[in-house]
Each structure stands twice: as structure tokens, then as C-alpha cells.
Write a structure and sequence with these properties.
This protein is an alpha+beta fold. It is 41% helix and 29% strand.
């Protein structure tokens, strides 16, 4: 069974690969996360975050619509919402193959 990758494992891996201390690796990872959070905040306006070869994140607006309850046949209003679309890039796909 594969190990779970959590933040601490990621910090350990970054520290080992970059040959830096775990404290420095954690600071760097926190900076990356803060930058991503700031970038993701702009995605609500329709921006797309593309990490070439790895991942593409995009917010898709889903308009309000009327659905039907299959059990009762009653019409139900479904409100508009934003959905996150994530697509793996070729580089990431090649890494896991």
C-alpha cells in the first residue's frame, strides 16, 4: 500500500532534494501555498491557473437550472454555482504511468 503524502512528508522530501533544512523547506512551502491561495482568489473572475506540464485549474460557472426529483417528480430549483475543474498535464500523467 502506498504511503499518504501529507504536508510533513512534502516538507521532508523538499528538504532532502534541495539539500536545505526542514525549517527552510517549510518556510518555502508556506510561501508557495500563500502565493497559490492569492492566485486562486482571482480565479473567481474567470482566470485560469496553469502549471505547464503538471496541472490546470479553472473555475467553471454553472448557471441555475430546474431539476426533477426522480422519486416524487417534483421540480426543484438548483442555484447557480462555481465548480473547480482540474486537469492533469502531460508531464504529471507521464510521471504516474
Amino acid at each position: 500500500m502506498a504511503n499518504k503524502l501529507n504536508k510533513q512528508n512534502l516538507i521532508d522530501n523538499v528538504a532532502e532534494v534541495a539539500k536545505i533544512s526542514k525549517a527552510e523547506a517549510e518556510r518555502q512551502l508556506n510561501n508557495v501555498i500563500a502565493g497559490l491561495e492569492a492566485t486562486v482568489a482571482t480565479m473567481k473572475e474567470g482566470d485560469k491557473l496553469q502549471l505547464v506540464g503538471l496541472l490546470t485549474f479553472e473555475v467553471k460557472h454553472r448557471p441555475a437550472y430546474t431539476a426533477q426529483n426522480p422519486k416524487t417528480g417534483e421540480n426543484v430549483a438548483v442555484p447557480a454555482s462555481n465548480k473547480l475543474k482540474v486537469k492533469a498535464g502531460k508531464g504529471l500523467i507521464d510521471l504516474v504511468q
